[in-house]
TrEMBL record:
It comes from the Eukaryota. GO terms for molecular function: ATP binding. The keyword Repeat applies. This is Disease resistance protein Roq1-like winged-helix domain-containing protein. Residues 79-136 form the Disease resistance protein Roq1-like winged-helix domain. Transmembrane segments: none annotated. One of its GO terms (cellular component) is membrane. It comes from Solanum stoloniferum. Signal peptide: none annotated.
């Protein structure tokens, strides 16, 4: 919720009249950090009418815009970064960051830097217990 609020309101807590709408957006975006960023940025400085319309839109087709953003992020990666992203997607989801970095570094140098790039582009994120996770799009 805080991540969404930071993008929608540029602060951690929404105004009282937006709390209900914020919760609705967070619930419908299924906890995807990228969705929080996309929809929060879209709703920043918008009125209640626009919020209602946007929530209706999210309920109808939220995944398509998110997948589109993820594809743009993926296409912008260097070939080596794409390879490591795919390795993580296929073999290392939910594994510890240090373990993944060590394994990837054994066959491809620059793993730590590339992992940081993937995090920055919202393609992967670090979850509980320092585990690498990805969006389910």
């Amino acid at each position: 919720m805080q991540l969404f609020n930071q993008h929608a309101f540029k602060k951690e807590a929404p105004n009282e009249c937006f709390k209900k709408f914020s919760l609705e957006v967070v619930n419908h975006t299924k906890g995807l950090p990228l969705a929080f960023k996309v929809w929060g940025s879209l709703l920043h400085k918008k009125g209640l009418t626009q919020w209602r319309r946007t929530i209706h839109q999210i309920k109808k087709n939220s995944n398509s815009k998110i997948v589109e953003k993820l594809k743009i992020s993926y296409d912008g990666l260097e070939p080596k970064e794409q390879k490591i992203f795919l390795d993580i997607a296929c073999f290392f989801r939910r594994h510890g960051r240090k373990k993944v970095t060590r394994i990837v570094e054994s066959y491809d140098s620059g793993a730590e830097y590339i992992l940081d790039v993937l995090i920055e582009k919202s393609l992967v994120f670090i979850f509980e217990y320092d585990r690498i996770e990805m969006h389910d799009g």
